[in-house]
Write a structure and sequence with these properties.
The complex is a heterodimer of chains A (131) and B (388).
Chain A: H1 16-23, E1 28-32, E2 54-58, E3 62-71, E4 79-86, E5 91-96, E6 109-116, E7 122-128
Antiparallel strand pairs in A: 1-2, 3-4, 3-6, 4-5, 6-7
Chain B: E1 8-14, H1 25-40, E2 49-51, H2 61-68, E3 74-76, H3 84-97, E4 103-110, H4 142-157, H5 161-175, H6 189-194, E5 197-199, E6 202-203, E7 213-220, H7 222-227, E8 233-243, H8 257-268, E9 277-280, H9 285-295, H10 303-307, E10 320-321, H11 326-330, H12 338-350, E11 364-372, E12 378-387
Parallel strand pairs in B: 2-3, 2-4, 9-10, 9-11
Antiparallel strand pairs in B: 1-7, 1-8, 4-7, 5-6, 8-12, 11-12
Helix pairs in contact in B: 5-9, 8-9
Classes of the chains: A mainly beta (131), B alpha/beta (388).
């Protein structure tokens, strides 16, 4: 994946901590200390109980491919967009970094990697776990 | 009788242009408004309620009411993407039932074709959108969002690309009879499968067209509708919702139609099996298949079989779908397909569809839309209409 084609995120006030962690190659998943549930995407409140007792928990960054699509003829070449079902029980949008997109299958195990974007900000993405 | 049934669609107009580089968006809104009012036999002076969505330029209804020269008692600019106009009909019915207005005008227009928009562009809704930081870096766009819903449907239910292709084939069979349709050539399943892959598993011909133009509707009190020279089309049931990523518990196998369909049918007091014509938003082939399941025309997972082998073509299957050619072949003005869905349902109920695609004695019809993105967050709206 060529970083020169990956847009950097616009970091909003409630995303500063998440993106700062990503810069240190730490993948964080928001967790609500009031109701005990993880949620996605990160925000300053819990979408389930609406508490603002949110903490970012460091995640092993493991999951399975829930669905994906190979975007053809994109600027910089084909890329894979996917929903990853994380081991925390939430599903996030991401890219899968691979040289062989045609071999990807729903349900495959993936792990987090960090890829530099146009702005230099590291962005969490996923790659197939080696067997 | 229920509240929303105390209103009727009296006027409908689809702009004949599919490319309009020499007209402004506001001008297209005006031409559509005039067309729908002429169709109803009403004047601008009689309009006291106005409805528009995010395609309206400037401050939306505020800019448009002044531009159109309207004198209003009621305004609604609810934006649910392409399904807005289906919801607007229900909102107009509620406003009329509550005595807030008597003649409601709904307009849509845009020119994405002249502005060279494509569905593979990243769409930005502004700088402060809370989801964007976690999606834009992954180059989410309209096509790959819907493609992920299609891929998951294939994984869970064994749906095939051939089955999806039949949705486009049916649309092309209808569009060949529509003189204004942007694409009028008949298409085969093989041609869909052989068209370039855009975002797996969606091929180019699984995607709707990008067209300029617009449309308008006029919703009125029943007493007014009965005095006009047009068939009386009653609003019998309606519902709307928004479905998103559910806090991360993403489930791409169902759309908001699973909520709005049953609610609208319950309000109307009928079942899907009573319907023989449905306008179903066809942004992509997968959208039609999933919405038909969610609305209850077939069981979840059976959509592939339901759409295959030409069964959506008028006169062949139990349910004719998008007899104007839909967004896949006819028209998708402003990238918002809900307006044309209502317009073709009105044509069918009036008996004014093309004779080759007219459903015989069509007295009930559904118009349903999915606005926004099926794969992330979308607005769903269902409308059930009846000719009386």
């Amino acid at each position: 994946m060529q970083s020169s084609f990956i847009p950097g995120p616009r970091v909003l006030p409630d995303g500063i901590e998440y993106w700062a962690a990503a810069s240190e190659q730490k993948f964080m998943v928001p967790h609500c200390n009031n109701c005990g549930q993880h949620h996605w995407y990160p925000r300053a409140h819990c979408p389930f109980c609406h508490s603002d007792e949110i903490v970012l928990r460091e995640s092993p960054g493991t999951g399975q491919i829930y669905s994906f699509s190979i975007m053809r003829k994109a600027e910089g070449g084909d890329f894979v967009i996917a929903y990853i079902a994380l081991s925390e029980g939430v599903t996030m949008l991401a890219n899968i970094v691979t040289d062989d997109p045609d071999s990807l299958r729903v349900g495959q195990e993936v792990g987090v990697v960090f890829v530099s974007s146009k702005t230099g900000q590291l962005v969490p993405m996923f790659e197939l776990k080696s067997r | 009788m229920n509240e929303s049934s105390k209103a009727c669609i009296a006027g409908a107009f689809e702009h004949p242009l599919r490319k309009a580089p020499d007209k402004s968006v506001a001008q297209l809104h005006f031409e559509c408004a005039r067309g729908a009012l002429e169709d109803a036999g009403l004047d601008f002076d009689q309009v006291d309620g106005y409805f528009c969505a995010g395609d309206a330029p400037g401050l939306g209804a505020l800019s448009m009411a002044d531009y159109l020269g309207l004198k209003l008692r009621h305004v609604d600019s609810t934006d649910m993407g392409g399904s807005s106009y289906i919801a607007h009909v229900a909102h107009a019915a509620h406003a009329i039932a509550a005595g807030k207005c008597s003649v409601a005008l709904i307009t849509l227009a845009g020119r994405p074709r002249s502005e060279a928009y494509t569905g593979t562009q990243t769409r930005s809704w502004g700088d402060d959108v809370p989801d964007a930081p976690f999606e834009a870096p992954y180059r989410l766009n309209t096509v790959n969002s819907y493609a992920m819903a299609a891929k998951r449907h294939m994984h869970e239910f064994g749906t095939t690309s051939e089955q999806l292709a039949w949705v486009k084939v049916a649309a092309s069979h209808h569009a060949q009879h529509n003189a204004n349709a942007m694409l009028r050539n008949l298409v085969t399943v093989r041609e869909v499968l052989d068209s370039p892959m855009i975002a797996d598993p969606l091929h180019r011909l699984d995607c709707c067209i990008v067209s300029d133009g617009g449309g308008a509707l006029v919703v009125v009190r029943p007493e007014i509708a009965r005095e006009l020279k047009r068939p009386v089309i009653r609003i019998k049931g309606a519902a709307e919702t928004i479905k998103g990523q559910l806090g991360g518990r993403v489930d791409l196998t169902w759309s908001g139609g699973a909520i709005t369909g049953p609610a609208a049918f319950t309000q109307a007091g009928i079942r899907p099996s009573d319907i023989r014509y449905a306008s179903i938003y066809d942004s992509f082939t997968i959208t039609v298949l999933m919405q038909l399941e969610d609305l209850g025309f077939c069981a979840k997972g059976e959509g592939g079989k339901f759409v295959a082998d030409g069964k959506l073509i008028s006169g062949i299957g139990p349910l004719a779908v998008n007899t104007d050619g839909g967004g896949l072949c006819n028209n998708h003005p402003s990238n918002r397909g809900g307006m044309t869905k209502v317009i073709e349902a009105v044509r069918q109920l009036r008996g004014e569809a093309h004779p080759a695609v007219q459903v015989k004695d069509c007295a009930l019809a559904v118009a349903h839309g999915t606005g926004g993105q099926l794969g992330t967050r979308h607005g769903s709206a269902t409308l059930i209409l009846e000719r009386i």
